[in-house]
User: Which sequence fits this backbone?
DNA sequence: TGGGTATTTATGGGCGTCAATGGAACGAGT
DNA sequence: ACTCGTTCCATTGACGCCCATAAATACCCA
């Protein structure tokens, strides 16, 4: 398996360390990246995290613009400037920075949420709320899809 | 890791010295450059800094124009002419010149900001403002990218 | 299939090392 | 000798690395 899936909630210890779920660790190993690349999610109280795949995505975003261009510098500031590469200790744990924790409202427990090529780290209660909301939206979407004819369905080809 | 990421704010001591974050130092070492190449950012109150990779980028930028062309001469003046190579002392500290400090409005604290292949040095308060602005722009950019598929995925985010 | 054993995880804690910072010693030039 | 700058040493707090334990899981073999 090379994708991050499912979700787990784990506790931070007295030193602020938290284990990365073993399943996620094995994906990271396969990805070949020593450490955990992460940054505050742009529009949610969560932390985006991953390995080379995620970093490549960021790189791709910024290098689309010319060096020294305004767009490129601002992208770099917002993306690289807020990113961190956390060290993973011998037991597979990381220490979240204050910045990351406060962005996500994390205190003593976190939820790891697989999102395919990356995963997110949430404060568990907030994640439950977000999940409920997302579930509602998906349900509504499904209803609407169901009421349409195949010809009108999004993604249908002529 | 061979990129500058994350941001840290550090203090200048009584002599005007400031430590380069250890993480950035290790990138510079890998890059194989003894010292810190830097110059005032062209259109921001910040200092651009880096090693060989940054110098190569500038070289590449100027050599795209014909020798003796106005563009090339002006680029050379603006970039090379204002550049400095700061010495790094045994403890990994540098002394910013008055020119650099005044360009960035630096007094006693600075923010080191990773931008991938280079990093910038800011006055912390100004950086916070710039980051907020950059984040807004990126968020807007993301919205635009996301809206391309909005028709196919109502209510979908990210 | 079941029972028992061996791994692996998640977590806790101790300790040495290093980073950031402050200050002293030293050297050169005026 | 005094000033300015550079190199060297000292402090302290954080962090990396190591080992320990308990629970859960995987494994094995009758």
Assistant:
């Amino acid at each position: 398996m090379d994708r991050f899936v499912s979700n787990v909630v784990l506790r931070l210890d007295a030193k602020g360390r938290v284990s990365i779920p073993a399943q996620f660790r094995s994906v990271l190993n396969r990805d070949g990246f020593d450490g955990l690349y992460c940054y505050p999610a742009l529009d949610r109280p969560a932390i985006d995290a991953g390995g080379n795949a995620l970093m490549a995505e960021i790189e791709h975003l910024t290098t689309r613009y010319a060096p020294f261009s305004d767009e490129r510098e601002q992208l770099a500031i917002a993306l690289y400037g807020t990113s961190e590469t956390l060290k993973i200790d011998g037991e597979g744990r990381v220490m979240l920075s204050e910045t990351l924790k406060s962005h996500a409202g994390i205190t003593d427990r976190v939820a790891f949420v697989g999102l395919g090529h990356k995963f997110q780290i949430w404060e568990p209660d907030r994640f439950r709320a977000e999940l409920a909301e997302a579930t509602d939206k998906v349900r509504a979407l499904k209803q609407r899809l169901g009421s349409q004819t195949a010809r009108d369905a999004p993604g249908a080809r002529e």
Notes: Residues 10-11, 13-15, 17-19, 21-22, 91-93 of chain A lie near DNA strand C (CB under 10 Å from a C1'). Helices of chain A lie at 22-31, 52-62, 70-79, 98-104, 124-147.
